[in-house]
Write a structure and sequence with these properties.
The complex is a heterodimer of chains A (260) and B (805).
Chain A (H helix, E strand, L loop, with lengths): L24 H9 L6 E12 L2 E14 L5 E10 L7 E6 L8 E6 L4 E7 L13 H4 L7 E11 L2 E10 L9 E9 L5 E8 L4 E13 L2 E11 L4 E12 L16
Antiparallel strand pairs in A: 1-2, 1-13, 2-3, 3-4, 4-5, 5-6, 7-8, 8-9, 9-10, 10-11, 11-12, 12-13
Chain B lengths: L1 H16 L4 H11 L1 H19 L3 E2 L12 H13 L4 E7 L7 H17 L3 E6 L4 E7 L4 E6 L8 H11 L16 E8 L11 H13 L10 E4 H34 L2 H25 L3 E2 L6 H25 L4 H28 L7 H30 L9 H4 L7 H15 L1 H20 L3 E2 L11 H13 L3 E8 L9 H16 L5 E3 L1 H12 L13 H13 L5 H4 L6 E8 L4 H19 L5 E5 L1 H35 L2 H25 L3 E2 L5 H27 L2 H27 L8 H32 L18
Parallel strand pairs in B: 1-8, 9-14
Antiparallel strand pairs in B: 2-6, 2-7, 3-6, 4-5, 10-12, 10-13, 11-12
The chains are: A mainly beta (260), B alpha+beta (805).
Amino acid sequence: MIRLTIILLFTMFLSAGIGHAEPTGRDIMLKADAVDSSRDAVMSSMMVIERGDMKLVRRMESRTKQYGGNLKDERTLIRFLEPADVHDTAYLTWSYDDPEREDDMWVYLPAENLVRRISGGGKKGAFMRSDLANEDIEDRAVDDDEHTLTGEENVSGIACYVIESVPRPELKKDTNYSKRVQFIRKDLYLPARIDYYDKRGKILKTATYGGYKQIDGIWTVTRFLYETPRRKTRTLFQRSNISYNQGLDDALFLQNNLMR
Amino acid sequence: MKKAIMENERNNDAERGGQDNFWGRLTANIIRFRWLWLIGVIGVTAIFFSQMSKVQFDNSNDIWFVEGHSILKAKERFDGAFGNTDFVYLLFTREKTPFTSENLEAMSSLAERFMETVPYARKVTWLGNVERIQGLGGREQEVLIEDFLPVIPETRAGIDAKLQEALTESEIVDNLISKDGTVLTMLIDLETYPEDSEDSNPRYSVVEAVNEVLAERAYSGLKPYFAGGPHFSYEYDALVKQQTSRLFLLIILMMAVLLLWLGRGPRGIVVPLLITIIAVFWTIGTIGAIGFTMNLLSIALPTMLICVGIGDSMHGIAAFHDHIDRGESRIDALKKAFSEVGGPIMLTSLTTAAGFLAYLMTHVKPYREMGVYIACGVVYAFILTVILTPILYSFGKKYPKPSRKRNKEEGAGDIFDHWLQLVYRAVVQHPRKIIVFFSAVLVLTFWGYMNMKVESNTAKLVFKNQPLRQTIDLIDERLGVNFSLEYLLNTGKESGIKDPEFMEKLDKLMVLADEHPLVTKSTSVATVLKKMRRALHGNDPDFYTLPESREALAQYLFLYETSGGNTLDRLVGFTYDQARLTLRLPSLDTFDARELSDYMHAKIDTLFGDGEVEIIEAGGMRNYLALNDILFEGQRNSFIAALSVITVVMIVVLRSLKLGLISMIPNVLPVFATMGFMGLVGLYMDVITISFAAVIIGVAVDDTIHFFTRFKSEFGKTGNYETALKNTLSSVGRPLTFTTMILVIGNAVFLFSYLLGFFKLGLVFGVAFTWALMADFFFAPALIMIFKPLGPEWQGPVSSQKELQ
């Protein structure tokens, strides 16, 4: 579970492209995923988790850099700012495109001045008590699912492809979902909405995206809202201060930098 | 000669009351417009019948508590803070489901299947997929988080090794595997049930879905036991429903046989049964119409209603035959019969209803409902008796054949006549001995009544041979986690539980709880923190301690939270303002549970005495304790209420304080003689048997009313206590004996119940109503003989007369 999976939070949401006449579901998802055109990224994020009239706020800073020959491997450093009592707690993740290779992860707990390597961990758990599961924010390979283009639909007046993504049978155990229905904007290849269905085939939660901005030439989602009506909870995720291709130092992504 | 006098008096009676009183006129009207009345009854019945389908069965855990009870509020707080506390689970025993690689694979697939099929399933946990956090040590102090069985071992030895390993994990033992390693469990954690959904009964939907999956071929080899709150309710309800119809048929059959023996002719069987059965339908229809619910106590409704309702028509029919035997015409006999019995049966119906309505004085919801239902049914039975008996008896020959046996001059023929003679002689010859004997019984059993204990654990209400009970016993024996006592600790401020001082106290409380011999295991967020800390320090047992600073504590919690520790929701409030402590316990009797609860309260006072932390006790065990309190108090209240109301009624009806008070003795004696007896010999009352007192009074008083009103009128006529007793016995003695037999034998159908409480009910009612009759026949008359409450005699005693010898 601790696969701290904030990592490729944006992979899915990046990139732009020009549509073909008759794309398949996989084509569209490849395009959406296709190229992380940035070599590195820096951003601040804020997560507001609401349950009834209760609210939790988490703020963090993250830095990401692409590695490997095809820039598919990735290293991410996340440092938490809020709540105050966890200030400076940090996670470092090295994730690999090779599905056989487990991600590496380290955590830093400032109060006890500890750095620990964490391995294993499931994907199904809730991410920081939010409406997001760890699997929602991790780097999911396009071919982990079967994608079927089922039609086109307008979401908030914007034309979208509707793609049904069903996990490959051997991966069923690692997911909470029987399927996801993704509404991908035809113009930006960024998601407008994703409906998550539980194992019983009932709708579990909905993610709605917004705040599309072109930053350093890259179209980016800066806001999304997850809602789980049956639990009466919602999570708003906002990103700011985004910058790409700043030429981040490799040393940032080494575990001895965690203690800073 | 006596017979002749008596009949003479009866004729006088009839003439005096005659057809002129209200009941006589009503009966005349009913017979005259019998088709109209009949159509009316059929119409009303049809309306009630249409409402019967609306009746809902209340299957929740909380049927016992009336709205606003602190228990319900505590549960609401808990569910609000930690989600649905309902869950179901399966138990796999080594003997029925050998722990082979094949079976473990099937369990693994079963867990997945449940997530796909069981509504509201939030998480399915078993030994295979339970997450374990381990410190692997090494240079990087690696921490491994993985399923306990990432792959199922293929060999016997491999499996055994893993099971042994599981027994060393405190989180897993007594939760997913029993201490002796012979039972594995699979827990299905449930989401909060939606409030406004099409699913009218989410708990049943869960159980049905689990059963469906288990019936699939792939899992047929697993043969698990099924348990958990929703399952218990589901099975219990099924048992109750099946029992209700079974007992209903049984009692009708039993009554038919009794009436065949005691009544006269087929009409004597059909009419009383028809009246009471229709009264049952009207009652159930009423429940549906006003939107009340049935519950596990309602099993007794039809049976009890038939027992207490059948007397009305039997008294009417007996009076009718008395008049027929005197050679009167059918219609005259009916009018006279009802002008005589209309008043008394209305009175007895009202006192019985009052006895049941006394339950409104309790805070036990099913009792209150049951009280209303039966009171309602009793009134219906009375109304139907008054309408239907004359109508159904009005058809036929104008002068029916009188009974040969009863028509004989001497009359003293059958066994009942002998019995009544025996009663008479005993009372007249040995009144003091009788008083001494009954007084001794009264005093002794009253003392027992004061020392009565109540067992409110409903799980043990089911007989041992029932699968439901066997599962409970299995869990008790092997796991010891049938029940829980829960504590919600509310700091009242956001992040309040991150205070190390608070956490230390919580941990201490948990350690103290674990030290108590009745606690199988306890859990709280403190355990999670200690385990995380140990894991981050290479599994060094020295680090099985709480983080020391607020920041460290927060960061460990955060680490757990970010790693998706989805049990956190079950352990701490959303804003870290409250924490939960769960004690898992075997089935305890109420005494032990109270002892444990007191122990915990004492410890809480020591640790959290400053009052800064709000602490709420909840959980199944707390419910039983609260139930115990309301039962005990409810039992007293309803008993006192019934006793007071009925005493006043008796004094008014008999127009004599002394006689009224004496008349209550036969009504309280059976209460003490049964409940007090149980207290005396140390038998526990349970949630069902505890309810008896008011019912016993309400029902026993019927006999008393018939006996005492008759006695008073006989004394008024004869001016002699012995003669009055003799005449009373020979007139109402027979129907009183009959109705008591009907009550005793009718309630005996409960002896066929699988539910222990109802079995006891059958037994206790039998004993109680027998005592009631004995007191009516022996104790009260003996007291009358000695104390002469109606003043001095003005005629010689009948005992000097020859016929007594």
